[in-house]
Specification:
The complex is a heterodimer. By secondary structure, chain A is of the alpha/beta class. Chain A folds into two domains: 1-231 and 349-609, FAD/NAD(P)-binding domain; 235-342, Flavocytochrome C3, Chain A, domain 1 (Alpha-Beta Complex). Chain A has helices at residues 13-24, 59-69, 76-95, 128-143, 214-222, 249-252, 265-268, 281-293, 312-318, 320-330, 386-401, 450-470, 476-490, 497-514, 528-552, 570-573, and strands at residues 2-9, 29-33, 49-50, 110-111, 121-122, 146-149, 151-159, 169-176, 182-193, 226-227, 232-238, 256-258, 303-306, 339-348, 351-353, 365-367, 372-373, 420-421, 445-447, 575-580, 587-592. The radius of gyration of chain A is 23 Å and the shape is globular. In chain B, the strands form two sheets. Chain B has a five-stranded mixed β-sheet with strand order 2-1-5-3-4. In chain B, strands 6-7 form a two-stranded antiparallel ribbon. In chain B, strand 3 (120-123) and strand 4 form a beta hairpin. Classes of the chains: A alpha/beta, B alpha+beta.
Chain lengths: 609, 296
């Protein structure tokens, strides 16, 4: 048993920043992560960090751009916090030595990015995330913050009151991947979830293999709602075999998309007669998939991104990294042949419902970063807004968990504010109300008293590991790939009612199959089979909530496109989708979006550029 | 065979389980292992047959070891036949083998794009990142082993603690005595200086360099190329100031520091991020000499 004031789960950008902030506020803090910190997927971020640093720019403009980009589904108090605090956080990173790209006068460079009214994206080459991650880990080393790396957090230790709003989180249960030991981590002040993305819900993603949404699923089963899960950003240019991202920079420099017939389809088929290849990410992704679906894709799978006409000199000067990526990960030579690309899952706008301090509906439980939904991105995230979210909300959650008084939050969590139940009837069976075996993880709600809750959670986790290791059953990999396949086929950039319903049926079958899951590797040493099996349970819960949200939201907003509903419907849908687990029975409900900022109200306008 | 297997320890890993339950569990596990082994052998035989008929299949020979699983305590090589697809990497082939033939096949991996540094391994006799090594560039059968000069934990997973300890030994964090006055003001850094440290900041802590280094193999206390490169990253950063640089040079000049390097360039050759490690070490040697002359 371990004990700390604050326990941070995950060691990417948000987790590291939260740990540093909590320690600065006087807390004894520990980080528990299934990966060593420098392996975290923050390191893969390329683009940059939006921050209104210069006199000609303002946080108000950044906030306006972000609200518009979110298609008016962001909550103004969170968006304004992001934009107000991003500049000081960027300067903080610089003071910690982060090697930003520089101007002639030695100041930090900024570049233009899609949807921004001012070039406010600070960056370090095309490896901003890598530099940010390493800079913050250096600070964690400097401060001697305890890191339990290669410990997989299995569950939360949360009390079991009937009403989730009355529950309290007292710690986490984790599995030491190297030794097989299950241990409790008591958190006297709070647990901060910073587990990142959930791209592994799909079979084609820019996300890492480790991005299985563990924190989101854990919080969900403990009684915290998932918010706006249907909003997934699909990036139009990823490599078909691996999902590796080919930066928007290629199209920015003049790269052209072709179909199998050699047609420049963005123009020739009328998808974007003005902007062509440079239309927004969702538009280009939908165009590419339409080409493939109508039989004009190459190998029925992808399209070509051609940059040969830019010439070797220009490519080497500005896009050298792309040549390496295409060569190393697709075996394609961008100088002599077009590169195969297709849309891939890239980012989850939704996640664990939090307020602007990172608090969830359960006392003592926080979330920050991609796993959280405050919400700053609403229905669509702007490029360059993910990294500032990590540092601004990581810091806020860390300070609050350490006991700093940050005032009353304006965003409500759970059902403490205005809310309404959804009247959507799902045809398929959802959730898991019967036949739960020891292989399942069913939430942190285990005992009412603070003393025994952690011990009980540890015992249950041990039983689960023992059961998975000793019984016979089917391998998780088959179940996971079925989930990923159905999600990619049906809950992708195109969504239609019938196929979404079918997906829920597929997911229910996968849930049934998972009841028989077992781990064939009997070892307690570095048993990745066991870890992946537990992750697959998390993927299942997230896939289901995501699909429920996609069915219920009968409109077209931001990244969420519905065949039957081709318009944004502000009169009905300026509200967040929430899904609560309710002891195995998922319940869908809504709460209004907050468009009132500090000094102004963000009136919804059309999202045209 | 350069891979090191840790000595077996006597203690059982299941100290917290009741004795009776443990024996029952053990029985089940033994039975399970037997069945799994049978199934695996059968599947591999089928695959081998298929492979003989199919040219588009590649053959992997993968190092296997588990300190606590019968039949794996003595290291062995398993053969996997994997259907080839265009653009397939060593990591893809390993994942295919794990997901289709043997779910106990163990290796670290995460980002699949050469930035997390998890999957450095020994492929056909060289340190490579599995995710950025194309199958078409390799001779078959492809021999995959854990990184040499590190303790093997299981299959392709090695103990990285020593590597991390060396990284942390060089005070791997930015230090300065002087910040700008303005509240929202950054430190200035010239483009030239940023360019000078750029390559050194690309290190992904994969450990390939350390594994390839003969000196590190013989001297366990040698800081090694990655840690010295980390020191270089800060020592050459003009934002830190002269007094801090002085301190940094003292650290890398200690007995197991830069002077151990014999400029064999093996680290530079294997670095998947093309960092000129040997050059960085040489430059620090020169800096150290200059610095010592100054104090004469």
């Amino acid at each position: 048993m371990h004990e700390h004031d604050v326990v941070v789960v995950g060691a990417g950008g948000a987790g590291l920043r939260a740990a540093i902030a909590a320690q600065e506020a006087g807390a004894d803090v520990a980080i528990v992560s299934k990966l060593h910190p420098v392996r975290s997927h923050t390191g893969a971020a390329e683009g940059g960090i939006n921050a209104a640093l210069r006199d000609a720019d303002s946080w108000q403009d950044h906030a306006y751009d972000t609200m518009k980009g979110s298609d008016y589904l962001g909550d103004a108090p969170a968006v304004e916090a992001l934009c107000q605090e991003s500049p000081e956080e960027v300067i903080q990173l610089e003071h910690w030595g982060m090697p930003f790209s520089r101007e002639e006068d030695g100041r930090v460079s900024q570049r233009p990015f899609g949807g921004l009214s001012f070039p406010r994206t600070t960056y370090a080459g095309a490896e901003t995330g890598h530099q940010m991650l390493h800079t913050m880990y250096e600070q964690v080393v400097k401060r001697g913050i305890t890191v339990y790396d290669e410990w997989h957090v299995m569950d939360l230790a949360v009390t079991d009151e009937e009403n989730p709003a009355e529950r309290t989180c007292h710690g986490v249960v984790a599995y030491d991947i190297q030794s097989g030991e299950v241990s409790g981590f008591r958190a006297n002040n709070g647990v901060i979830l910073a587990t990142g993305g959930m791209g592994q819900v799909f079979d084609h993603t820019t996300n890492a293999v480790a991005n299985t949404g563990d924190g989101v699923a854990m919080a969900y089963r403990a009684g915290v709602p998932m918010e706006d899960m249907e909003f997934i950003q699909f990036h139009p240019t990823t490599l078909p075999s691996t999902g590796v991202l080919i930066s928007e920079g290629v199209r920015g420099e003049g790269g052209i998309l072709y179909n199998e017939n050699g047609e420049r389809f963005m123009f020739e088929h009328g998808y974007a007669n003005n902007d062509g290849e440079l239309a927004s990410r969702d538009v280009v992704s939908r165009a590419e998939l339409t080409e493939v679906n109508e039989g004009r894709g190459i190998e029925d799978e992808y399209v070509h991104l051609d940059m040969r006409h830019l010439g070797e000199e220009r490519i080497l000067d500005r896009l050298e990294n792309i040549l390496h990526l295409a060569e190393d990960f697709e075996g394609a030579d961008g100088l002599t042949e077009p590169m195969p690309v297709k849309p891939g899952q890239h980012y989850a706008m939704g996640g664990i419902e939090t307020n602007e301090h990172g608090e969830t509906a359960i006392e003592g439980l926080y979330a920050a970063g991609e796993c959280a939904c405050a919400s700053v991105h609403g229905a669509n995230r702007l490029g360059g807004n993910a990294l500032p979210e990590l540092i601004v909300f990581g810091k806020r959650a860390g300070r609050h968990a350490a006991g700093e008084d940050m005032g009353e939050a304006e965003i409500t969590t759970g059902r403490e504010g205005e809310w309404e139940p959804a009247d959507y009837e799902f045809e398929a069976e959802v959730g898991e109300t019967s036949g739960r075996g020891p292989a399942a993880a069913d939430g942190g709600a285990v005992a009412t008293d603070a003393e025994s809750v952690l011990g009980t959670a540890v015992e249950r986790a041990k039983d689960r590991v023992d059961a998975l290791l000793s019984r016979r059953g089917r391998n998780h990999a088959e179940i996971r790939s079925k989930v990923q396949e159905t999600m990619t086929a049906n809950v992708n950039v195109f969504r239609e009612e019938g196929r979404l319903e079918e997906t829920l049926v597929d997911l229910h079958e996968a849930r049934e199959a998972y009841k028989d899951v077992a781990v064939s590797d009997p070892s307690r040493t570095f048993n990745t089979d066991l870890i992946h099996t537990m992750e697959t349970r998390n993927i299942l819960d997230i896939a289901e909530a995501l699909t429920m949200g996609a069915l219920a939201r009968e409109e077209f907003r931001g990244a969420h496109w519905r065949k039957e509903h081709q318009e944004r419907k502000d009169e009905n849908w300026l509200k967040h989708t929430l899904v609560s687990w309710n002891d195995g029975e998922p319940k869908l409900w809504y709460k209004p979006t907050i468009l009132e900022g500090e000094n102004k109200t963000y009136e919804p306008k059309s999202r045209s550029y | 065979m350069s891979t090191q297997i840790p000595k077996q320890t006597e203690e059982s890993s299941e100290t917290e389980t009741e004795a009776e339950v443990a024996s029952k569990g053990d029985e089940r596990r033994t039975e399970k292992r037997r069945r799994a082994a049978e199934k695996r052998a059968q599947r591999q035989a089928e695959e081998a047959e298929k492979a003989a008929a199919d040219e588009d299949t590649i053959e992997l020979k993968v190092f296997r070891y588990d300190p606590e699983v019968e039949g794996k305590q003595d290291p062995r090589f398993d053969t996997f036949h994997v259907p080839f697809t265009k653009g397939m990497t060593v990591l893809d082939a390993l994942m295919y083998s794990r997901d289709n033939y043997d779910s106990s096949l163990t290796f670290r991996h995460s980002c699949r794009q050469a930035v997390c540094g998890s999957d450095a391994m020994f492929v056909n006799g060289g340190q490579k990142l599995a995710c950025k090594t194309q199958i078409v560039d390799l001779q078959e059968p492809i021999r995959i082993e854990p990184l040499p000069h590190a303790d093997v934990q299981k299959d392709l997973v090695v103990d990285m603690e020593h590597f991390y300890d060396q990284m942390e030994a060089v005070e791997p964090y930015f230090q300065t005595n002087e910040y700008p006055d303005g509240e929202l003001e950054e430190q200035r850094q010239t483009r030239e200086n940023r360019e000078k440290v750029k390559m050194s900041t690309r290190c992904i802590w994969c450990g390939a360099c350390m594994s390839s280094c003969n000196i590190a193999a013989g001297d366990n206390e040698y800081l090694g190329p990655a840690a010295i490169n980390k020191a270089y990253r800060f020592a050459m950063d003009e934002r830190e100031g002269e007094d801090i640089k002085q301190k940094r040079l003292e650290i890398i000049e200690q007995e197991h520091g830069v002077w151990r390097c014999q400029t064999q360039f093996s680290c530079t050759e294997v670095c998947p991020k093309d960092i000129p490690l040997t050059e960085h070490i040489q430059e620090l040697k020169r800096e150290a000499v200059k610095n010592n002359l100054k104090f004469w």
